[in-house]
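Now for one record.
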Amino acid sequence: MNIVIKGSIRVMRTEEDGKEILLYYIKAGESCIMSFLGGMHHETSKVKAVAEEAVDVLFLPVDKVSTLIKEYPEWLDYIFRLYHKRFEELLEVVNAVAFKKVDERLLSLLYKKSALVNNKTILVTHEQLANEIGTARAVVSRLLKQLEENGILMLGRNKITIM
């Protein structure tokens, strides 16, 4: 099991054809429930995690986690709260893909990234954004240009500033 101490990590699902979709972010004090469950069952994780910035991570041996749960019930509560949070985030992804237009998903992702780094300027490529919302880079580039024309954001080389 791992717990992020500092920084943030994005967790994505990657298909065999290379397509990706953002599932959620892991922030300080949080862990990836998918890696935890995979470790407990000695299975390979079905998700990919990428550091968004410099990250400090505390790694706990999987065989020690069951001892921690038995001796400190707070750990079990932590795991259930984390599972609940990740489940809700995954429901948001399903809802967004099923019911929201790509421009809404893109803008929502930009706001989320901005809040994550606590800065209105985000260092990101069009390709990365496209991967995270599961669409083509050309679609993201076109939508970002429209958002810039509408005064919602300002584009720069590999960066976006939300107005």
Q: What stands out?
A: Residues 126 and 138 are 8 Å apart (CA to CA).
